[in-house]
Amino acid sequence: MEKTFLMVKPDGVQRHLIGRLVQRFEDRGFELIGAKMFRMTKEQAEYHYAEHKEKPFFGELVDFIISGPVFGMVWQGENVVALSRVMMGKTNPLEATPGTIRGDFAVDKGSNVIHGSDSAQSAEREIANFFRPDELMLQEPPALRVVQ
Ligand code: RTP
Ligand code: MG
């Protein structure tokens, strides 16, 4: 089953949007298999955004994401990577359609409330950056037969 890494960014946490955002993904039918609030280290942030290392906004992006607690989540479901990106809306606030998360809650390109992995491969890499395998509710182990 496909997995993705979604994260309420520091602005979303500060604005008390966690509950409403979790609700949207539960309503869509996805399964939450891991979640925690934490403060990202600079090393984690630079690794997370490594694809943007050469961009002029890289420093600002890293400073923003470590500026306060984030709420990281691992979600599972059919096409969860692509569908959660549709639910998030476009990065550019002028293109984020109302009804999407960014279209409903964000007006700024940087403070845009939520992150979501852009491919299954990115998801795997991002999940490993923030979660230990034992923090995820993967396959339940078969029930132990108690022999009396
Ligand atoms: P994200 O990675 O946060 O889910 O967002 P995304 O895929 O929609 O956008 P991406 O291109 O990966 O960019 C990562 C984050 O960098 C900030 N950004 N700033 N100032 C700028 O021109 C600019 N462009 C991108 C945004 O906060 C974006 O979410
Ligand atoms: Mg991205």
Structural write-up:
- The chain has helices at residues 10-14, 18-28, 42-48, 58-65, 80-88, 101-105, 120-130, and strands at residues 3-8, 31-38, 70-76, 114-116.
- By secondary structure, it is α+β, with helices and mostly antiparallel strands.
- The chain has a four-stranded antiparallel sheet with strand order 2-3-1-4.
- The protein is globular.
- It starts with a strand and ends in an 18-residue tail after the last helix.
- It comes from Paenibacillus cremeus.
What would the keywords be for this entry?
four-stranded antiparallel sheet; Alpha-Beta Plaits; binds ribavirin triphosphate; 148 residues; 16% strand; binds magnesium ion; alpha+beta; single chain
Q: How far apart, in Å, are the first and last alpha carbons?
A: 37 Å
**Each distinct ligand:** ribavirin triphosphate, magnesium ion
Shape: globular
Q: Can you count the helices?
A: 7
The CATH homologous superfamily corresponds to: Nucleoside diphosphate kinase-like domain
Number of strands: 4
- CATH fold name: Alpha-Beta Plaits
Low-confidence stretches are: none
The succession of helices and strands, N to C, reads EHHEHHEHHEH
Strand order of the largest sheet: 2-3-1-4
**Broad CATH class:** Alpha Beta
Mean pLDDT: 95
Largest sheet: 4 strands, antiparallel
Structural class designation: alpha+beta
Helix content: 25-40%
Domain count: 1
Beta-strand fraction estimate: 15-25%
CATH architecture: 2-Layer Sandwich
| Radius of gyration based on Cα positions | 16 Å
Main location: cytoplasm
Protein name: Nucleoside diphosphate kinase
Catalytic activity: a 2'-deoxyribonucleoside 5'-diphosphate + ATP = a 2'-deoxyribonucleoside 5'-triphosphate + ADP; a ribonucleoside 5'-diphosphate + ATP = a ribonucleoside 5'-triphosphate + ADP; dZDP + ATP = dZTP + ADP
Pfam families: NDK
